[in-house]
Design a protein that fits this description.
disordered N terminus; disordered C terminus
Length: 322
């Protein structure tokens, strides 16, 4: 059974998920590492080319375009070329709009909390439609959402409860870094929540552990790289490209290693904005710890009703033929 699962695609071309469960700390799966990492390096090519332009020519964007390309690559990462291009084309303007809304709403604490809370609720509810939509967040079509609403617009529904729990946790994460004054690195709190929270408590707890381990590894590795190669745009660009490739390649292979890769990317890209490598390392670690704590408490304070069937086992989310 495990070998058959690993040989099948994680998604079908329509974006319906079979499963996306994090493997144990030292285990590999469900995807096979060879093909997944090769695909990751292929997807990192445009990111690397963009970094050459942004870092090599010292543009004002300083890696922002490459980072947007990294984010937009995840929803269709394992789809064939045409569906992948369609998902990326649909996702690009939505990511741009979300970024603009983030800039506008972040001017004050209350608007930042409200905006991310509402956006997180929408993204969390998308688990009932398609995991690709959950990964992309905003790329939800009206027809698909309405179909899910009929069956899930009740607090007894796991989808509705996860939407509220997810949005509330993200809002709490934003509120925490505003209240603590973590202006430079507060994004680590909602970022951690975004990656670890799932519609099942057991899977969320599992990811909390892997996230902690991967973050520690990524922080150590990235800080060392940034300190040693500070000022070398060519090396930094190469490191960012490789980190992006492993982020794509390891997401469905080993979540702790994926976390280390994406942490490396985020930390190293921050050095291109002029931040010293060792500055505010404690805030990065503190942000991750707070994000893990909020995600943990969100499930304890408002669990699913007793006897609720996991969302991943529902017909539209599981099975090879879905």
């Amino acid at each position: 059974m495990p070998s058959r699962r690993s040989s099948q695609p994680l998604f079908n071309t329509a974006g319906t998920a079979r499963s996306l469960r994090a493997s144990p700390l030292f285990a590999i799966g469900p995807a096979q590492p060879g093909p997944a990492i090769r695909r990751g390096f292929l997807l990192s090519v445009p990111i690397g080319l963009t970094l050459i332009f942004e870092l090599g020519l010292d543009t004002e964007s300083a890696g922002a375009i490459a980072t947007a390309a990294l984010i937009n690559g995840f929803p269709g990462m394992d789809a064939p070329a045409r569906p992948r291009a369609a998902w990326q084309a649909a996702g690009a303007p939505l990511i741009g709009i979300a970024a603009a809304l983030g800039i506008l709403s972040s001017q004050t604490g209350p608007t930042a909390v409200l905006a991310l809370g509402l956006l997180g609720a929408l993204a969390g509810f998308c688990f009932s439609v398609s995991l690709r939509l959950a990964i992309l967040g905003l790329s939800v079509t009206l027809g698909m959402l309405l179909a899910a609403l009929r069956a899930n617009l009740t607090l007894e529904s796991q989808s509705a409860r996860h939407a509220i729990r997810f949005g509330a946790a993200l809002a709490a994460g934003v509120a925490a870094y505003w209240l603590l004054g973590m202006d430079d690195h507060g994004y680590w709190i909602p970022l951690t929540i975004l990656f670890v929270m799932r519609p099942e408590r057991g899977e969320t707890d599992h990811r909390l552990i892997l996230r902690a381990v991967g973050t520690v590894v990524g922080l150590i590795l990235a800080t060392a790289i940034a300190e040693v190669f500070d000022g070398s745009e060519l090396v930094i660009g190469a490191v960012l490209t490789v980190a992006a490739a492993f982020s794509f390649g390891l997401l469905t292979v080993q979540y702790a290693l994926f976390t280390a890769a994406i942490t490396t990317y985020v930390v190293v890209i921050s050095t291109t904005l002029g931040e010293p490598a060792f500055r505010a390392v404690d805030e990065r670690a503190t942000g991750t710890v707070l994000g893990i704590l909020i995600a943990f408490l969100a499930w304890r304070l408002w669990p699913n009703p007793a006897g609720t069937v996991d969302l991943a086992s529902q017909p539209n989310m599981g099975g090879a033929g879905s």
